[in-house]
Structure prediction request, 95 residues.
Amino acid sequence: MRKYEVMFIAHPELDEASLTTLVDKAKGWVTASGGQVDQVDLWGRRRLAYPIRKQTEGQYILMQTQLSAAGTHEVERNFRLTEQVMRFQIIRTEN
Prediction:
């Protein structure tokens, strides 16, 4: 398994309970793909560089994970289908 950083921007109007549920779903997608979540950092609400879906702010979440290469496709698919996620990125780290 390889190490990946999974970063996503959630809709700014999500309350704390909804954001926690979304993060738990994302963790579940990683573990369902045969990976594991090492660390989760909630960066909080930040201003976006440009508007996304008419929003100027978003809630940033960074997860340090271990996944197989095939597992990233399933995680990407789930992020694309989730309405509350405005943007996401999965990057392989050098470890």
